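Box S2. Input/output pair 1.
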Amino acid sequence: MPVPVVLLLHTHMPYVRRNGDWPVGEEWILEAWAECYLPIWKLVEDLAAGKQPGRLALTLTPILWEQLDDPYLQDRLAGYLENKARQARNEVERMRGLGDDNRGDLARRFAEHYSRLLGAFEKRFRGRMAEVLREGTATGRVEVLASAATHALLPALSSEPQRRAQVAIGLESYRRVLGRDPEGFWLPECAYTPGLDELLSSFAPPLSYVVLDHTAVPEEGGIRPTWEPRLLGDTSLIALARDPLAHDLVWTERGYPAGGNYREYAKRDYDGYGFQYWRVTSPATPLDEKDVYRPENAVAQASEDASHFVENMRRRGEEIASSCRSRRGPTLILAAYDTELMGHWWLEGTLWLRHVLALLEDDAVLPGHIAGEARASKPRRLHVGMTAWNVDGTFSTWVNRETSELLEYVHLSEMEFGDALACMTCEALGEPPRERALLQAARELLILQASDWPFMVTRDQAAAYARDRASSHRARFNLLLEMALTGRMDEEKLAFLENTDNPFSWLTLDPWL
């Protein structure tokens, strides 16, 4: 029997609603929604209806869900898609004037594409994205994993109550969205230290497994047996580790997205509306020398690359099966990628994924199934030190000299929030205005804890925006905490912040108490 493959997409976006627009801010989530989320939800829909072979697992972080379910952002997406279609139609006329038939044809395709997306959103997905996921899970073709509330790097938080709140709020969000308890949990950034054992095990059940980076698995005879599900530390949770080959084939500079026929992400035509008319050509080709994109060639390459991927997974499976002849229990190849790769950075990624799932058919399995089989087989224990989905398996991308100020904001806010809870009497917490201010301070703290801000600073990707976001949420937190502690309310400011940063309308203080 071939070694099964788990295709897992991690779907996350930090909170950007009413916190800037362009080039980062709301434009960020609108692009991802149009280019990644709508195509992936269509794939989920097709899996549920039996129109697409295979099985797919994905995460949906609570803070992203809060934005996808937000009527204001839904209206913004409809306007965004309508505007993109209009811009593309204008581009057709501009290219006709330039005598550029190739780019004119691409502009026409872009216009049709955005019009189709708008139609699909209005007819099938507006206000129904959770329902589509529920339909997919009900058929057994889709599995959704839970995650922490705002994608905080859990080991970097200053206290157990803060880590517990992130997990508890994440699980409550999952229940509200999916109408059921989760089996699997995605640790943000796959970041883990042994200190998380007690916390995670306290949520098991319902949790039965977690996903770790391949660096979590120690070498045995010069190789890391990432294919072997094991019990995590001293817990009852099964640990599933990402496969390094599946990672390298896609998620490296020479991976499939670097294929010459694929759409070049980095080059945009700013003489018009910023559309991307060029192909990769080769990774070494300068941007000003890129060839014009040919969609039919990209479609063919996606099919070829999918075949190449599946062939490599089969070969990897044979090697795994050969090395596991003397042991009992299931094996797996876990191929995990960011959802935002599929369609945004790699326009043809969703098409590639469809081909992969079709080629794998029943060999594409869900992680919960593997975890259940593993538990029944009395697996070995995996004792893990520090690990994360990072170039060196450490937390260096999030915890370093450049991010020290951001982490200081987080830790000070966590300490002050804990002190406020401790010093405010039960009577004071029962006063609606003061509890309302404290709850909004909790929302600001949760947003501040997101791993995205230090990541952006370290990678120098909109670092100024990330620093500004951290600073602004710290300032909002301070103002709200003062209201809660003193009872001196600024109703206008409080209402403004509640409307600006509004995730988790159902939030209570219980996760921290």
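Box S3. Input/output pair 2.
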Amino acid sequence: MAKKTNDSMNNFKQINNQKSDRRKITLIVTAFLLFILLGGYIIKGLPSLEQLENPQPVLASKVYGIDGDLVGQFFIENRIETTLDSIPKHLVNALIATEDRKFYDHWGVDVGRFFKAMIKDAATLSMHEGASTITQQLAKNLYSLKSKNENPFETVIRKIREWITAIQIEKTYTKREILEMYLNTSYFGRGAYGVQTAANTFFDKDAKDLTVPESAVLIGLLKSSVNYDPLKHYDRAIRRRNLVMANMVDAGFLDERFYEKFKPLPIEVSNERIKSNGTIAPHFLEYIRRQMEKLAEKYGHDLYRDGLNIYTTIDTRMQIAANKAAEAHLKEYQALFDKNWKWEKHQELLQSVLDRAIKGNSRYLSAEDPAEKSRIYGRLMTNQKFVDSVKREETKIQVGLVAIDPTNGYIKAMVGGENQRFQYGLNHATGIKRQPGSAFKPIIYTTAVENGLYPAYPILNQPFTYNGWSPQNFDHSTGGYTMLRDALKNSLNIVSGRLVTEDYAPLGSISSVAKRMGIQSKLDLVPSIALGTSEVSPLELVSAYTTLANNGVHVSPISILRVEDKDHILLEKFYPDKISEAISAQTAAIVTSMMQSVVDYGTGAGVRRFFHRPAAGKTGTTSDYCDAWFVGFTPQLAAGVWVGFDDRRVSFTGAYGQGGRAAGPIWGRFMQGAYEAVEMPLKYFDMPNGVITADFCAESIDKGQPKLATEFCPSKVTDIINKNNLPPQCDIHRGVSSTPF
């Protein structure tokens, strides 16, 4: 019996041992499989060999002006690369002294520092002691190894991946290359990636020009760009900067005497650079962006990641002058408009704009219940603060300004709205079409001159009716015969109407001339086009005026000159789409001469308060003062200004809305500022061969050759007598007088 019991016990033990062995094997196999799976999971999140050998940091594409200045950038991460040779040695020393003193000795991971950090974290029950080397931080920067809101397990996995990647980086690159990549990829705050961008952002200088204290500020930001931001947390930034310099002293990189000298210095950051959107030409930059998005796809590049270099026509000196001119005038004119505009007289309009604003409000749009929408609508309609904000927005005076070099079509300056911190929305220089009013008349007159008219040609300034249309002069004045020059100078609508309806400037010819001169919009070919009723954009109207300034040769506007990749390898050069002789040089000179009279003695004379070079131009005012224009040019620069409102139901309320008053001063201020900034020499308009001038007529008379004068000075006029008894068409006091021959 006892023997049987012992045998049973032995069998039981044997079975238990077998079960224990199986459990051990199962645990070992499970652990091995888990290890394999974990290893696979870790490896799966590592960068590939191709990524290691060819890291692709996200680079901003840079836009440069024709004068070499940086105008702006397109980016996901605002980053400009630089070389280690362009980074001061003291900045590199500050980095090593603060972040990784054994950088030149380890192989990517500092094991001793890691364990010290772990012990310190365990003792303080925290996870704040850093142990990452510069190479590990580079691995994190380059390959996005850290995920958002990671848990402790993910943190361990990420650290392992950083270790492995750091070791691979050390195998692939030299220490010098690692430093250069690290300083080009690190984030310094305020949207600045890379030390070059950080130097521009915080100190408005290149990285190579950073001082020791400035370098220490930037290196201090690597620990926390938020906590040590010199604008938000100045005292912390000072302490952190001084700690970085103390580390430099401790590591033997900085003499203690210099440390004591630098320690009390304040941090002087470029406040305006930090607070601005980083560009003086936001509307032009958006104009470039729209073109480049299509071109980048053609090149196989990403505009926001691949660091393209885009060289444009903009002149930053002229752009600054344009910004100042628009800002100064609008500040003055907005106050004048606000004083004269009375919402009480426009209740129907007010109800309409409030209705539109409320139905576009986020609270109204997010409400799903109709009853809730109704309550929100009622509350906003009676909320005085909301109502006032809608009124202000609705009555903001907008501006569109564009300046072009007539000889090559280069767009030199552009202002697309009253908001010079523009981020999105309408560009009023390129994206609107409005009636140009009398600013379109030079095209009518050009057509008439092409058909044989000349500045002294007499035309009747008396009302007429044509198929029910009866144009009136702005001041409702009338008269007898007037010369063509005086009609343009005084912007007589009746005369312009007669040019069209009496076939001096037939509608078909106007269309052809306008297109050749640069008007791309489809024109409404009706008699009222004589008064500028067919809509055009400011850009194309200025482009048409450049044809007159360029002796009849039209050069289409251009804004991009060339595009290079991040290594400055040329991708493409650009040229104007079209260069053609639109009108004869003689016609251009005759019309230009008449337009000089507009600026010197006529409706555009107000610009002479600001600008005193030889210039030609034309004002434009639409009915009810909705749109005000001034477009003009010198031999070197053409510019146009539109002033008005986004909502066409809002308008100026009196004569202060005339083009010469509402738009002319911006043109005058801009031209004055542009000429001063660029220091352009004085230049007069050329008079080409083949144009009869008053001087020619006078010389013919003096030489006793009146027949010669009569032959070349048309003798159609019999009722205009010149005080010198010269052929009346010669228009002695007004320059150009005749048709080309």
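Caption for Box S3: The chain has a mean pLDDT of 83. The chain is about 45% helix and 10% strand.
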